[in-house]
Amino acid sequence: MLVPLFLVAAPSAESRTLTQGHRGQEVRELQKLLRRAGFKTKVDGVFGRGTYRTLRRLERELGLRVDGRLTASERRLVERALAPAEGTGGFSTDSMSRPRAVSSQTAPGDKAQLTEDGLAIPPANAPEEVRKVIEAANEIAKTPYKYGGGHGRWKDSGYDCSGSVSYALHGGGLLETSMSSGGFTKWGEAGEGKWITIYAHGGHMYMVVAGLRFDTSGRSKTGSRWQRSMRSSSGFAVRHPEGF
Q: Do 165 and 228 fall into the same domain?
C-alpha cells in the first residue's frame, strides 16, 4: 500500500543531521545553540559558511568529530556540555563545598584519583602548587562550556578549553593572566612535565595533572572536565610549567 506523501512525517530537529546548505527552523535551533555556547552567530535559519565554521570550532572544543555536521546524538552531547551542573549555583559557598572537601583529601603516591562524581583527589606526594591546581580545577570541573569563558574574568558562568586550563594554573600560582590555546604552544618549557603537562594547538588545548586529563571535551560526555582516559596528542605542542 502506498502512503500519500503528505502523511509522511518530515525529519525533526531531534533526528535530522544538519549540514551546510540546510535551511529552516532546525537550523535556527542549531544557531541558537551556538549562541548559547558563546559564539556570535547569526540566527537566520541558513546553514551557511559562517555557521559551518562556528560548528567546527565547537566540535573541536568538545572533542566531537570535526566535520561541520550535527547529528541528533551530537546535539545531545552539545546540550550536555552547555547545561548547568546539577545541584550547583555558580560560585556560591554551597556549590563549592564538595570540590573543596575532595581537594582536601589525598590519594597515596604520585597519581591523582577520580571520584565517582568527576572530581580529582590530589596525590599525597604532589607539591603544594600542584595540589592547588587540582583544587582550582575541581572548582570549575562541572561548570558549563562557554566560548571565551574565563578570559574576561576568573569567576565566570562557563569556560572554554584555554579558559579552563588558565583558571586551574592561576589557582596554583603558575599563571598570572588567562591565555589562548595558541599562546600555550610556547608557554613554559618543552616536553612532558613530572606533574603537569600542557597539550595545545591553535584550535584546542587540555592538560594532564598527576595522571588525570583535564579537558573541556569531557563535559559533553561525563559532565566533568576530569577524565581518566588519555587522548591522542598528535598535532599538539607539548609543554609544562617550569619545575613541574
A: yes
* Sequential pLDDT tens for the chain (244 residues): 443 433 333 444 456 899 999 999 999 999 999 999 999 999 999 999 999 999 999 999 999 999 999 999 999 999 999 999 875 444 444 456 889 899 999 999 999 999 999 999 999 999 999 999 999 999 999 999 999 999 999 999 999 999 999 999 999 999 999 999 999 999 999 999 999 999 999 999 999 999 999 999 999 999 999 999 999 999 999 999 999 9
CA distance 13 to 232: 32
Cα-flanking dihedrals φ and ψ of residue 227, to 5°? -140, 145
Find the CATH number of the domain harbouring 66.
1.10.101.10
pTM of the full predicted structure? 0.89
Instruction: Read off the CATH number of the domain in which 187 is found.
Output: 3.90.1720.10
H or E element at residue 227: strand 226-227
